Fold this protein.
Amino acid sequence: MATKKSAADLRPENVARNSISALKACADSVRAAGQQRYFKNLVEFLGVSTPQLREIDAAVWNKVRGTWTFPEALAFAEAMLQEKHHEIRGLGLLLLLRFRKQFPPSFPAVVRRWLAADRLDNWALVDVFCPDALGPLLEDDPGFVKEIIAWTGDRNRWVKRASAVSFIKPARRGQCLDAVYEVAVRLFPVDDDLIHKATGWLLREAGKTDRQRLRAFLLKHGPSIPRTALRYAIEHFPEAERAEIRNRTKAR
């Protein structure tokens, strides 16, 4: 009987239920109200602190480690992503990232489905998950690079943002730079400040290994670059050079 009970405790739906209860036990309405100020769109928070969230994540990992593989972790994430609170969905994604070495080639389609359905419906969830979940696949599979570039044309803002932030870590290492600049050009016309910030962030990371290429790119595309994206992109340039680039890229 004890063995059966242990097996039941490890079922993804039961682990999800217990994890949700643990998170709700840490709820703090004052902290939740404060967390909302970082988001322009409505995000529902429990008010769980980052250390509390990490502690619960570690406890779940210790419970399932050596027993679960990717399918169980995916089922857990799916269950957590059905919930409305940010921390619950975040925990599902954090635990799933522990299985990143097992992600199959079909996994990007799963991520796109979540994004398009607004299960990752704010910049924090997208930015925490997509660089670590999809970045390694971009470095390993050229076909996947083309797939993510195509996400720039999606109607959903979170799919669009993911098309940029998924390239952050390769860009930081000077990899996939042709794709990075193509993504940026495709996203420039999008009328969305969250997309402009992500695009600028991506360009800034690309410039860390090849500043001259970034400078030439910015001067070439000039007025077509949203000013928010430009501001982020040139953060690591010396002040005098930032001023020059801002002046030379102004609309005439």
Notes: The mean pLDDT is 95. The two ends are 77 Å apart (CA to CA). Residues 123-140 form the longest helix (18 residues).
